[in-house]
Amino acid sequence: MNLVVFLYVNILLIFLVLLGLVFGFNITTFVVIFGVMAIITVILFIYIFYFIYSLIKENKSFVPYVPTPMKVVYEMIKMAGVKEGDNVYDMGCGDGRLVTEASYIPNTKCIGVEWKADVVLTAKIRNFFKKSKAIVKQGDMYKENISDADVLFTYLLPHAMDKLEDKILNECKDSVVIVSHGFTFKNLKLQEERQIGKITIRRYSK
Ligand SMILES: C[S@@+](CC[C@H](N)C(=O)[O-])C[C@H]1O[C@@H](n2cnc3c(N)ncnc32)[C@H](O)[C@@H]1O
After folding, report:
1. Where would I find the H helices in the chain?
2. Most buried one in 31, 89, 192, 203, CB count within 10 A?
3. Rounded to the nearest whole angstrom, what is the distance from the C-alpha of residue 109 to the centroid of ligand 1?
């Protein structure tokens, strides 16, 4: 569920109103259509507000929001070997899809950190509809305490991975499992590499 879906639904409703005018829908139908349009418009405004707010707040080095395809999400969770009771983090979690899926494994504590407010809002709405207990926090991942992490997921650009690597080496337990999508870490120990179509995922240890 994202901004574009809401926009499409609103455009569809406008067509429905036009149809209603041509075919003479009754007043209750119009009230329902306008009610839904009003709710969607409010949601759109909240999105736009959050988007502008995050642009103003954000003065950090740029990493775009590009979600991992769901097929790869499942492979990353399998590769990490997430198990009952694990503390799972996604550093720069986007719409939270990795922590959402990992949260269905019993007794896991799954935390996604994302600084873009509009993306965090998408993640929270997504989590709600997917009945996930994952927590999505808005903030800077470099400031998150990850000392209890059993599993860390990442999908970032090289400059951000270098900075995150330092944090992992300084802060994480020796047993932490790191699974990355895309770029490589320089100093962590590569344990496994898998190719899913054009995408490479890698499992590292400290
Ligand atoms: C390529 S996306 C990956 C999203 C998600 N992990 C996935 O695999 O679907 C990278 C995300 O990291 C976020 N990000 C980058 N640097 C960050 C930081 N310092 N703190 C929090 N989020 C950050 C970006 O806003 C972006 O949404």
Report:
1. 3-23, 27-57, 70-80, 97-102, 117-129, 158-171
2. 89
3. 19
161 lines ligand 1 (CB under 6 A): no
Q: 63 CA to middle of ligand 1, Å?
A: 6
| Residues in the chain, total | 206
How far apart are the C-alpha atoms of 110 and 94, rounded to whole Å? Answer: 14
Q: Model's pTM, two decimal places? A: 0.77
Q: Which residue's CA is the closest to the ligand 1 atom numbered 11?
A: 92
Q: Which of 55, 105, 58 is nearest to 82 (CA)?
A: 105
